[in-house]
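At this stage, I needed to go through a protein sequence along with its fold in C-alpha cell form, as given directly below:
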Amino acid sequence: MTQVKFNTVGIYILLLILTVVIALLEFGGFFDEKGALLLTLTFWATLVQGAIAVAAVTLLVKAKWIGSLQKELLSFYPLLLLLAVLFALLWPQIDLYPWSKQPTAWLNRDFFMGRNLICLLLTYFAGRWLARRATSPEGATDRHAVIYLVLFVANQSLIGFDWVMSAAYPWFSSMIGLFFFTEALYGGIAVAGMLFWLFHRSRLAAAPVETPAHVRDVGLLLFGFSVLWAGLFFAQYLLIWYGNLPEEVIFIVERITASPYRELSWFFLLALFLVPFVSMMGAPAKGDVRMVSLISLVVLAGLFAERLLYLLPVVPQHGGALLAYNLLILCATLVVLQSRDEILPEGAAIR
C-alpha cells in the first residue's frame, strides 16, 4: 500500500484544518462542559515537548541514548505550534478558573493568556530551530539544545502552576513546576518506547547492533524515571502531610475518598511507579522491545490518568469531547511521524 506523506507546508495545512475542526466542535454547541480542551492540551504538551526535550538532552550531553530515534522525536516540532494555536482557543473559557471572578496581578485573563502563548510560541521556534539544525550538515550546537531546554522547563512550569494548580485555587504547591517538567521527560521517554514498537523492524534491519542497545536505553530510563518520579511524588505528599494546611489537605482528601478519583489515584501510582519499576528490574525485560513498548504505553496511560485526576474535580469534562480531541491529535501525530523525512529532509543522521 502506498503511504501518503506530506511536506512541511502540507503538515501545517493539515494542522490548520485540525484546529478548525476542534474549534467547530468546541464552540459549535456540541458539548456542554468546556474542560476537555484544557485537559487534552495539558496531556499532549507533556508528550510533545517532552519528546523533543529527550532528544535535546541527548544532543547536549553527546550521548548515544535512543540515537536511532532522534529524528523521529525531533520531527514532532510542528505539533508545538498546534499546541499554541489550540491554547488560544481557551481565551473565552477562562471563566473555568475560580480566580477569574477575582483576578489578581498574576492571575488575570490577559496576562495569563499572554505569557502562556508567548512561551508556547517561543518553545515552538526553539524546537524548530533545534530540529532543523540537528538534521542539517552543520549540525546542532549546545546552544540550540540549551535554548530549547530552558524554554521547555519554563513552559512546563507554567503548565503546572498556571494551567493546573490555579484551577484548584487556593491550593498551592511549590514543587509542581519541577514535578511537571520531570514528568514531561518521563513522558518523552515513554514516547520513544512507543516509537520503537512502530519502527523497530526497520531500525533493526538498518542497525542490528545499535538498535537493541537503544531499546535497553529506553528500558533503563523508564526504570530510573519511575524511581525519580516516586521520590518527587513522595516529597510533595510529605510536604502536604507535614504542613497540614486546610487547602492542601482538602485537595488530597477529595481525590482519594470518592469514585472515580480514588481509582484514578491508585491507577496512576501503579502505572507511573510500581509497574515500570517491577517490570524493568530484570535485564531481559529492558532489552525486549515488546515489554518496553508495553510499559511505555502504561506510563502514558498513567500520565493521562494523573492529569485527569488533577482537573476532573474542578473543571467539568465531556467524555465525547475528550475522546474526539485526543484522537484527532493522535492522528495528526501519526501523520507527522509518517512524514518525518519530508519535514526534516536534509539529515540522514543526527549530528
